[in-house]
Amino acid sequence: MITLPLFEGRHQALHASVAHVRASLEPIALRGEAGEVDEAGREAIRIAADLGLCRLLVPTAFGGEGLDLRGVCVAREALASGSGLVDAVFAVQGLGS
C-alpha cells in the first residue's frame, strides 16, 4: 500500500485485512466467466459482507462505519485485483448509501 498522509491508520488496517482476499475470489471470477453471473454475484456480496466491507457503505447513524471514500477505494482495489465481478457487485451496493 502506498504510504501517504491521506491514508490514516484505519486505512492501513483495512488494507491489511483485505490484502489476502485475492486468492479466495478466483473461484467466483471463474464462475462469472462461465456464465453463472447471478450465483457468482450473490457469493461475491456474501464475501464482501463477511469481510465487513459492506459496513463501509452504511452511514454511522445506521450502524455502519460511514462512507469514507479512501476506505472504499482501498476495499475496491483489493476486490478488483481478484475479480472485476466482485468489485462491481460491491460498488453497486454503495449506490443507494
Plain-language structure description:
The chain is mainly α. The chain contains five helices and no strands. The chain has helices at 9-18, 22-33, 37-50, 69-82, 84-93. α2 (22-33) packs across α4 (69-82), α3 crosses α5 and α4 runs antiparallel to α5 (84-93). The longest helix has 14 residues, at 37-50.
Concise synopsis of the structure shown:
This protein has 97 residues and is mostly helical. Helix content is 62%, strand content 0%.
What is the fold's blueprint, element by element?
Blueprint: H1 9-18, H2 22-33, H3 37-50, H4 69-82, H5 84-93
Main sheet, how many strands, which sense, barrel? Answer: none
- Measured by DSSP, the beta-strand proportion falls in under 5%
Level of helix content? 55-70%
Low-confidence stretches: none
**What's the helix count?**
5
Evaluate the radius of gyration.
Answer: 13 Å
Total DSSP E strands: 0
Summarize model confidence as the mean pLDDT.
Answer: 83
Q: What structural category characterises the helix and strand content?
A: mainly alpha
Shape: globular
Topology pattern, helix = H, strand = E: HHHHH
